Amino acid sequence: MSEAPQTPQDENEPVTPVLTPAQAKRANQSLKGMVISVLLTVAVAIPVIALNPASNADRFKPDVNVPVVAQQAAQAADFTPVSPTMPEGWYPNFARWTAGTADKIDYWDVGFVTGDDGFVRIRQTADATPGWIAQMTDDAVQVGTVDVEGTEWTTYAHDDDVTWKHDGDDSTILLTSDSGDGVLRQAAHAVLRDTHSATKK
Question: pTM score, two decimals?
Answer without folding.
Answer: 0.70
